[in-house]
Amino acid sequence: MSTVSLDELRAHKDKNSFYILIHGKVYDATKFIDEHPGGDEVILAEGGQDATEAFEDVGHSDEARALLPGMLVGDFEGGGVRYHLLSYTLHKADRLNQDIKLKSGAAAAQASRVSGAVETGSK
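Above: the chain sequence. Below: its structure as tokens.
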């Protein structure tokens, strides 16, 4: 299995060549973009970066998880605790550098649910 660098991951973030990082593994989801049940915009918003949080927040089915091994490119460089710290830092930095309007559909929906729960709980 190959190791994928951060530069390589970031070089593959459009419809023509699309890598996504989930739990320290890099997947080539290029052929899956048009089939993504949430729409291509949702998945494209997570390309070239750590999409673990977005993937888990949506609560993907066992069927969706079963597709991942067939798309596996390799391990993300760094692995383990170092990987988690690096990917978390990069993920947050990327989010801060983007306009808030570019939130993925999943992240926006989660933010709405949390906001509603907080308002309901404070009444």
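Residues 99-103 have pLDDT under 50 and may be disordered.
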